[in-house]
Amino acid sequence: MVADKKEAKLWVRQQNALYKKAVWGVVFLGFLNVILGCIQAWFLASALAHILDSSMDGFVQAVLWFFVTCLLRILLNFTQQLIANSLGQKARSQLRKKLLSQIFAAGPALLRSHHSSKVAGLLVDNVEMLEGYFSRWLPSSYLWALAQWFVVAVVFWQNRSAGIILATASLFLPIFQAIFGIATARTSRKQFLALSRLQGRFLDRLRGLATIVMAGRSEQEAEALQKSADELRQRTMKVLRVAFLTSATTDLVMIAALVGIVITESHFLLHTGNISQATNALFAVFMVPEAFAPFRSFSAAYQDRARATETAEVALSLPKPQYDNEQHEFNLGDSEAVELKFDDVSFHWSDDREWVLNHISFTLRPNEILLLNGPSGAGKSTLLELVLGFIKPTNGTIFFNNEDITKIKPKELAHHISYLGQKPLLFFGTLKENILFARPDASEKELQSAIKAAAIDKFLPQLPHNIDTMIGEGGFGLSGGQAQRVAIARAYLKNAPLILMDEPTAHLDKETEAEILSSLTNLAKNRTVIIATHSAQFTALKDVKTLNLPLHQYVTEKGKS
């Protein structure tokens, strides 16, 4: 879904309103800086006028005041930049938290409608690009007109003819800038879309790298990526060309104003004898760059505004939370147990495709284990996705303790489910950090209990730094069985009443599988468990029920069909 431009602008204005007071603080410091710039230019003009007149009376005093204003401007610039950067950091942090909350509220189904690279790009790249919007664009958008016309008024007060020339140049500049600004926004938008497409394509190809190599299409895909990268390069260069033209327009108008003032004031500069008039003439010349400095900052930050609109469009494309704060607040109470019921559940991906699941009905109570049997493609993972909330049933209802699962907040649902897949998601960091990922606030006692329950303590002595050993992305440095034990330890720490497992012992040897199965048996105690597996060893577990897919024959007792 592409957000409407009006909605995007409204979203941007809402962000502006949140930080309006802080922005005005930066604007106030910027205006003080402009006032100091006027004072600085006056003392510099006075010092040079004394030199031109060969008069040292008052020269030293003017030079001293010039250096004092220089130091004050440096301190003021530093303070202004510090506050502006702090504003940008705070705004990005709060916006990222807000978007994360919205994504969590939408639940796993979000990834069915939005590519994961798009969501990741929004949270990382898009939000990070707003640093310039909050720290540069917002202050300069308020400051440029106020500061520029303040300078024009000061010059006009001191020198009428120079003030008129400067005012005329200031009036024409926004017209030229508007033309190039629109072009900059359009080229920037196209460049952003090209970047998003390249991100999605690269992530897709990276995920399917093994399949691409086996299919012998590595060269074709490399060429396609090269083509997308070249398109992005061309669009980026176009953005830079338009940006340079915008900057050149400002320089040309400023030079024209400078030349006009120098010509009209040349008789005061060439004929000495009147220090006051020479000072006024030099002051008007020095104030030309000062008058255009606010607009230059405004123009340089224009692209930051375009990025804010792009971010708004992506953020608005996220689904809105379907549940209010009071309704559908699911609570297990003191029972800490889950009864899962499928009531005539069917699912297919589209009307022109066959049913993946057809009229599935069963009831799974606490302390019971459901084994999903069937060949690959029979629908085992699809059934798990239905329980996890990635997809919704086409027909029928899934009940979670007699509550329709589609009416439960995704965040609440995720709180009561632990998931163990074929390959655990491990990240670069210590082994301890990877285990605590399930519950960062867990106590040391709870951590050690999970480590022992998952039998991680058996291989800890083999690691160079015990639990503080660094492991690589994807579990590099650990065997398949060791990585799976980390996932089991996470499940122990989370202590969710419903556990879903999708081929948890796949790609493991028989001995390691038996060890993992022992840990999983302990994990399954007093919990409701669904296991999708091809392994016959899981049938040895107690209180096992079996669902054969795609034959839809439900077994209520072990060994009976």
UniProtKB/TrEMBL annotation:
Residues 340-561 form the ABC transporter domain. It is a multi-pass membrane protein. Residues 24-307 form the ABC transmembrane type-1 domain. One of its GO terms (biological process) is cysteine transport. The keyword Nucleotide-binding applies. Its main location: membrane. Keywords: ATP-binding, Membrane, Nucleotide-binding, Transmembrane, Transmembrane helix. GO terms for molecular function: ABC-type transporter activity; ATP binding; ATP hydrolysis activity; ATPase-coupled lipid transmembrane transporter activity. CDD domains: ABC_6TM_AarD_CydD, ABCC_MRP_Like. It comes from the Bacteria. It is found in: Cell membrane. The keyword tRNA processing does not apply. The chain crosses the membrane at residues 21-52, 58-76, 137-157, 163-183, 242-263. SUPFAM superfamilies: ABC transporter transmembrane region (SSF90123), P-loop containing nucleoside triphosphate hydrolases (SSF52540). InterPro entries: AAA+_ATPase, ABC1_TM_dom, ABC1_TM_sf, ABC_transporter-like_ATP-bd, ABC_transporter-like_CS, ABC_transptr_CydD, P-loop_NTPase, Type_1_exporter. GO terms for cellular component: plasma membrane. This is Thiol reductant ABC exporter subunit CydD. It comes from Aristophania vespae. The lineage of its organism: Bacteria, Pseudomonadati, Pseudomonadota, Alphaproteobacteria, Acetobacterales.
